[in-house]
Design a protein that fits this description.
about 90 residues, single chain, mainly alpha, 5 helices
Length: about 90
Amino acid sequence: MGPEESAVDCSETIERLYHYLDGELTDERRSEIRHHLDDCAPCVGAFDFESDLRKLIANRCKDHVPDSLRQRVHDAISEEERRQESGHSG
């Protein structure tokens, strides 16, 4: 593949793969990465692996958080916000 075919190479694609999967890239950069993935079997293999791994982890990590814990976290955040608004820290 010549440089005129893709704005990114394999190194950059792999380096930015997590950002791509997380939706943290600009539309332009996502398009460049997608174009590279369309043309590069080794990189699309890495993409497929990482994507499948994330799905597997997400499906296995669905622990229920007790309502009491959610409330304690909410209360702690609210208290910290009140402290910051009043100019006090810790």
